[in-house]
Design brief:
Blueprint (H helix, E strand, L loop, with lengths): L4 E7 L3 E9 L13 E6 L10 H24 L4 H4 L6 H24 L4 H19 L7 H24 L7
Antiparallel strand pairs: 1-2, 2-3
Helix pairs in contact: 1-3, 1-4, 3-4, 3-5, 4-5
């Protein structure tokens, strides 16, 4: 005899909740706990993205802390001109701007690792939050275009870091 399953499907506007109460047949081994398993699945035609802001803030804090360490190293080695007059002709300035963007990629990786879905979006939001914080901290100060390019590149690196975290993170489906 085939095992019979009792399921209840509850529809809301965005997701369907499915409750699995186990099998009614005595042929299958019973679980040690008879608590129903509930999970959410997306309904067709609904494109909703759940942003975990704790993941984004954790990624931003990682990016912020590493950027502060990088800035301390820049000042220690006497390259503080990169903050006021960055130049494409100076390879050290280019390297430091690329390093700063890659640190946003590390923060994006952290955000993607903590996210349950939309990993690249979480990584991108790390860069966006970084731009907003920098804009609020530097109100009225002219920012060199090369540093703005570094911020935009940081957003792309953050999205890449989030995507990489999503690929490396093992997500097992609930059965």
């Amino acid at each position: 005899m085939l095992p019979m399953r009792q399921s209840a499907i509850l529809h809301s506007d965005e997701v369907s909740l499915v409750a699995d109460h186990g099998s009614a047949s005595s042929e299958q081994p019973r679980r040690s706990c008879e608590v129903p398993v509930i999970w959410a699945r997306k309904r067709q035609g609904v494109n909703s993205v759940n942003i975990r802001w704790t993941a984004v803030i954790s990624g931003f804090m990682t990016d912020f802390a590493l950027t502060i360490l990088l800035q301390m190293m820049i000042v220690l080695f006497g390259q503080s001109a990169v903050f006021t007059e960055p130049s494409l002709q100076n390879p050290i300035h280019v390297l430091l701007i690329l390093l700063g963007a890659s640190l946003t990629g590390v923060g994006g990786f952290v955000a993607g690792w903590f996210a349950s879905e939309a990993f690249a979006m979480h990584g991108l939001l790390v860069g966006v939050v970084g731009i907003l914080v920098a804009a609020l901290a530097n109100v009225g100060i002219s920012v060199p275009p090369l540093l703005l390019f570094g911020q935009v590149l940081g957003c792309a690196c953050g999205a890449f870091g989030g995507m990489l975290a999503g690929r490396l993170r093992r997500i097992s489906p609930i059965e």
